[in-house]
């Protein structure tokens, strides 16, 4: 298509060039012709003026006395002289065959290569006669040859131009296509280095070097860009890049996930308009003003959660010490803060839990040492209380050691195929008498077998803790039921009771250490407040899930989800 278009343009160019050459020749010829005709007129005018002074005398024509002079003049000037009277009759002529009667009075008549000039002879009163001169028209020898040479030279120049155009156009068009391909990211075109013209060779070599350099540069840029994108997306911290005028250029995925926003409208938006946290905006404003790095710990609300972030703002300065942009990094320290709070709460709770039995043991021991042993009945009562508090203390220490063991890095589980139905039936036998004492309807709902991969001892421990809690928090005459529901790849175990229930805002805390819904009831039943924390860790060790649904006064439902097939070849961390 481009070749046909080029050929059409070439034909039109040639037609225009040839037309221009012919037009120049035509105009030049006309100018030369007019100039020569003007010179011939002036020459004829001067000749006619001289002859008129000879033949026109006393208002009459006298040619007899000047005949020889006229013939001599005509021979020298190579003209034909004819004299006519006032009636246009021939009076004298240097040519025998001249027409006898003068026709027409046009002053200058051109006929082929001859030129006729007619002049009225001067007279004061009446017309004396007419003078007619016929001579050869002036011409330039070799003018037509010059025209042919001019046209030939023009055509030769056009041919040479086409030769140059074709010589340079092809490599230039190739270089153009090569440059377009390079801009589009294609580097498969290579310019030839086997050309004779030095300028074309330099062009081709330069284009090859440019293509290679841009290819290397783009490859390096893409590699660095991919590395930077991988780094920013997997840095583990929220990241915002802001330019020198306050527009947001980039927001990484970690920030979007952490702050629960897709931030699709953030890019190129002013940070004052899209960032909703005043403390963060104040930090950015301060960095623009001071040009110094700032780092602060901020508490920010994300949805219904309250999170803690270590926020760092660093300016990007140019060589003129002007702010080109700002990098804002959000490091989520909520977990660290929660761990600190858990550590403080754990120390306080352990101290409180140990204080009560230890105080009781010390108090009753001092009482016995002070003489209470004399009263045998009082001694037995104190010893039973001391035994109970010692058992509580032993149970607490046992649960703490168990929880510590589960949370160790190399905590092992012995996985094997087991039936949840058989395991739960054996667990219910343990609680049969206790449920009967409280007149609680403890039942195992008929359903699926529940074959899974798991550690039988640890799953048994999970079930014992959950059933213990269900019976402890269910009043007399209540109901505790267990059901198994199989799905394609998972098995749900649902433990439901009609106990006191849990308030909605307290449900997330039931798996915390030492957290009790009803502290008095828990202590009376001998609970340590660590059972559900142990349950949660053991369920997660089996890569399972635990879910709680509850309503105050109407009971609770604990749902544990196990995977049917779980191959474990390495120790599991709780």
TrEMBL record:
It comes from the Bacteria. The chain crosses the membrane at residues 140-160. Keywords: ATP-binding, Kinase, Membrane, Nucleotide-binding, Phosphoprotein, Transferase, Transmembrane, Transmembrane helix, Two-component regulatory system. Residues 349-566 form the Histidine kinase domain. It catalyses: ATP + protein L-histidine = ADP + protein N-phospho-L-histidine. SMART domains: HATPase_c (SM00387), HisKA (SM00388). Its EC number is 2.7.13.3. This is histidine kinase. InterPro entries: BphY/WalK/GraS-like, HATPase_C_sf, HATPase_dom, His_kinase_dom, HisK_dim/P_dom, HisK_dim/P_sf, PAS-like_dom_sf, PAS_4. GO terms for molecular function: kinase activity. The lineage of its organism: Bacteria, Bacillati, Bacillota, Bacilli, Bacillales. NCBIfam families: PnpS. It is found in: Membrane. It holds the Pfam family HisKA.
């Amino acid at each position: 298509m481009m070749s046909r278009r080029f050929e059409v343009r070439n034909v039109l160019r040639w037609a225009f060039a040839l037309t221009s050459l012919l037009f120049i020749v035509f105009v030049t010829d006309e100018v030369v012709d007019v100039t020569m005709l003007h010179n011939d007129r002036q020459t004829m005018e001067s000749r006619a003026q001289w002859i008129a002074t000879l033949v026109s005398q006393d208002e009459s024509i006298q040619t007899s006395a000047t005949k020889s002079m006229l013939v001599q003049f005509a021979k020298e000037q190579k003209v034909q002289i004819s004299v006519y009277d006032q009636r246009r009759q021939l009076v004298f002529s240097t040519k025998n065959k001249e027409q006898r009667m003068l026709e027409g009075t046009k002053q200058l008549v051109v006929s082929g290569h001859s030129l006729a000039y007619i002049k009225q002879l001067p007279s004061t009163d009446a017309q004396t006669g007419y003078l007619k001169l016929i001579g050869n028209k002036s011409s330039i020898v070799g003018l037509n040859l010059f025209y042919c040479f001019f046209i030939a030279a023009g055509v030769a120049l056009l041919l040479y131009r086409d030769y140059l155009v074709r010589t340079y156009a092809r490599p230039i068009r190739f270089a153009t296509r090569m440059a377009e391909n390079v801009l589009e990211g294609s580097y498969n075109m290579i310019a030839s280095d086997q050309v004779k013209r030095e300028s074309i060779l330099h062009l081709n070599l330069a284009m090859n070097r440019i293509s290679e350099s841009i290819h290397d540069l783009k490859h390096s840029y893409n590699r660095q860009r991919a590395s930077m994108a991988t780094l920013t997306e997997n840095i583990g911290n929220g990241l915002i890049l802001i330019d020198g005028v306050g527009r947001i250029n980039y927001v990484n995925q970690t920030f979007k996930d952490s702050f629960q926003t897709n931030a699709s409208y953030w890019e190129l938006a002013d940070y004052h308009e899209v960032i909703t946290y005043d403390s963060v905006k104040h930090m950015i404003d301060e960095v623009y003003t001071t040009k110094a790095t700032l780092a602060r710990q901020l508490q920010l609300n994300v949805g219904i959660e309250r999170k803690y972030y270590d926020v760092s703002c660093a300016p990007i300065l140019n060589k003129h010490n002007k702010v080109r942009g700002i990098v804002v990094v959000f490091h989520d320290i909520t977990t660290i803060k929660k761990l600190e709070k858990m550590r403080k709460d754990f120390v306080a709770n352990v101290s409180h839990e140990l204080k009560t039995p230890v105080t009781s043991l010390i108090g009753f021991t001092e009482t016995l040492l002070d003489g209470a042993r004399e009263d045998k009945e009082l001694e037995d009562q104190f010893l039973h209380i001391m035994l109970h508090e010692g058992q509580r203390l032993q149970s607490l220490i046992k649960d703490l050691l168990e929880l510590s063991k589960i949370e160790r890095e190399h905590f092992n589980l012995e996985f094997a195929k087991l039936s949840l139905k058989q395991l739960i039936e054996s667990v219910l036998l343990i609680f049969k008498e206790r449920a009967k004492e409280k007149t609680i309807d403890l039942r195992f709902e008929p359903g699926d077998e529940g074959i899974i991969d798991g550690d039988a001892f640890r799953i048994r421990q999970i079930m014992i803790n959950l059933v213990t809690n269900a019976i402890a928090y269910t009043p007399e005459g209540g109901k505790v039921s267990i059901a198994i529901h199989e799905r394609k790849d998972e098995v749900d175990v649902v433990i439901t009771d009609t106990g006191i229930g849990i308030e909605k805002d307290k449900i997330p805390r039931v798996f915390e250490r030492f957290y009790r819904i009803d502290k008095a009831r828990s202590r009376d039943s001998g609970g340590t407040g660590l059972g559900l924390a142990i349950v949660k860790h053991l369920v997660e060790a089996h890569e399972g899930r635990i879910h709680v649904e509850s309503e105050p006064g109407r009971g609770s439902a604990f749902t544990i989800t196990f995977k049917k097939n779980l191959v474990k070849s390495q120790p599991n961390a709780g």
